[in-house]
Amino acid sequence: MGSLPPVVQPADRLDDDQAERSARTIALPGFGAIGQARLAAARVLVLGAGGLGSPVLQYLAAAGVGVIGVVDDDVVDRSNLQRQVIHQTASVGEAKTASAARAIAALTPHVTVRQHAVRLDRGNALALFAEYDLIVDGTDNFSTRYLANDAAAILRLPYVWGSVLRYDGQVTVFWEGAPHDRSLDYRDLHPVPPAPGEVLSCAEAGVLATACATIGAMMATEAIKLITGLGEPLLGRVQTLDALSGSWAEFRLRRAPGRVPVAELIDYEEFCGVEPAAPTVTAGELASLRQSGAVRLVDVREPHEHEAGHLDGDELVPLGILLDDPRGALGDSPALVVAYCATGVRSARAASALRAVGLDAVSLAGGFAAVPAGAGR
Hints:
Structural class: alpha/beta
Organism: Galbitalea soli
CATH architecture of the largest domain: 3-Layer(aba) Sandwich
Keywords: ATP-binding, Nucleotide-binding, Nucleotidyltransferase, Transferase
Low-confidence stretches: none
CATH topology of the largest domain: Rossmann fold
Helix content: 25-40%
Mean pLDDT: 91
Strand order of the largest sheet: 3-2-1-4-5-6-7-8
GO molecular function: ATP binding; nucleotidyltransferase activity; sulfotransferase activity; thiosulfate-cyanide sulfurtransferase activity; ubiquitin-like modifier activating enzyme activity
Oligomer: single chain
InterPro entries: Rhodanese-like_dom, Rhodanese-like_dom_sf, ThiF/MoeB/HesA, ThiF_NAD_FAD-bd, Ubiquitin-activating_enz
Radius of gyration: 23 Å
Strand content: 15-25%
Number of helices: 16
CATH superfamily of the largest domain: NAD(P)-binding Rossmann-like Domain
Protein name: Adenylyltransferase/sulfurtransferase MoeZ
Number of domains: 2
């Protein structure tokens, strides 16, 4: 297929420190000072400072990208540290954007980091994306992926995408309006979203940290190739990783028949069938409720998780059983039902299902991990 034109025009010059830091890259055949100057002039927006965003941010910063935007509305949790390697233990409780910005500044002071501690939505996506040359998507849910894809497609921005679940990963490039009739977007890979609950989250299924590192490094490589015009980008090709076998496979992607370019942003939660969020209670609020006695505590994890540790006085109703028949699983419950799981993801779905059949139910925010040792566990 051949390379594509560089996305970014080069900066006027590199200062001595930039040139020294980039010496090994400048020495690469075909890269040179002009390629490094393109990186210095580039503006890259990274969606998510999590498992994929961490290596992307680190490698783009070390490579000398001039402006890096970070979009994430979450805070650092202790359970993130296993794979979100841009954050440190001291960052727990801090906004991920601030933690990432500090780490980048310590690594490469030349990089300008723009913190966007907001939730990406159709009200802010187009204006935000328009400030950048390309988008790198490390998000972990379908509604945000479709939103990011569509905003990039409307603005004709190249869009690097990756995903990881358990031991497997995928990475590719989408670019609606790409040169040489190579226009592709996320809807060519996933024309319609999966049914709600069909694909487990990382919190539910688990994820190998080093698979995040591998896919994240590939995403950063694709961004560098697009910025500089070097090599053959993964446009029209999807690379898949099986980390357990140590193998890569590739399949070709073509424009879906009859697909028309995206013209406007839509309600992506409705499109993906996302249910309205169930109310939550904090660990402190749960402690007060339990003192009153007017609460029914339900663990929706699996039996092996419950056996490893659970809250006193609870009852185990795995999520799959509860979702099959919410009313039958719990019967009538005059007391408030507080559903909990490991981190709050599965319990939110459980609480929504219970409320849909008329029960008064909430989810424990942060899950079992949020309850201090000795506080009923």
